[in-house]
Amino acid sequence: MFDRRSYNQGVILGGLSELYKATKDTSYTTTAKKIADAGIKKLTDSNGILHDPCEPDCGGDGSQFKGVFARNLQMLQQTSPESRYAEFLDRNADSIWQADRNDQNEFGLDWDGPYVGPANASTQSSALDAIVGALST
């Protein structure tokens, strides 16, 4: 069964990327790509923007979930590049910057906007994980 919280897929992507780096066994990146593709398919809207089912009320830790996915997808992308992952990170970063940012450059929870505050350390770091991921690909 597919767990619909993005951080679960994200953590696995990071772990499999590290296992590949340690062993050079491509079965780890093959599995990671299947998980990444499933996560992107099941957790994005029609515009390709990542969402968690807890939105708009994700509580104290739920607002960090998408950042975990983005950060570890970036790791997979650096380990075994695919244009679809670079495009995914770019699309989400662009949406965050254009639609989920207030006039003080604070980021909210819903990456396709509109910005709904208040921003906090979790929403900020999660959005920045996606932006950094896009910039590093």
Summarize the structure in words.
The chain is mainly alpha-helical. It has a single domain, classed as Alpha/alpha barrel (Glycosyltransferase). It is built from six helices and no strands. The longest helix is centred in the first third of the chain and has 18 residues. The model has no long low-confidence stretch (mean pLDDT 94).
Question: What is this structure's SSE topology?
Answer:
Blueprint: H1 6-23, H2 26-43, H3 59-62, H4 65-79, H5 83-99, H6 121-136
Helix pairs in contact: 1-2, 1-4, 4-6, 5-6
Reading the helices and strands in chain order gives HHHHHH
Number of domains: 1
Q: Give the tally of β-strands.
A: 0
CATH class: Mainly Alpha
Mean pLDDT: 94
Query: How much β-strand is present in the residues?
Result: under 5%
Q: Helix share of residues? A: 55-70%
CATH architectural category: Alpha/alpha barrel
Number of helices: 6
Structural class: mainly alpha
Largest sheet descriptor: none
Q: What global shape is seen?
A: elongated
Oligomer: single chain
Taking the alpha carbons of the first and last residues, their distance comes to 30 Å
CATH topology assignment = Glycosyltransferase
Radius of gyration: 14 Å
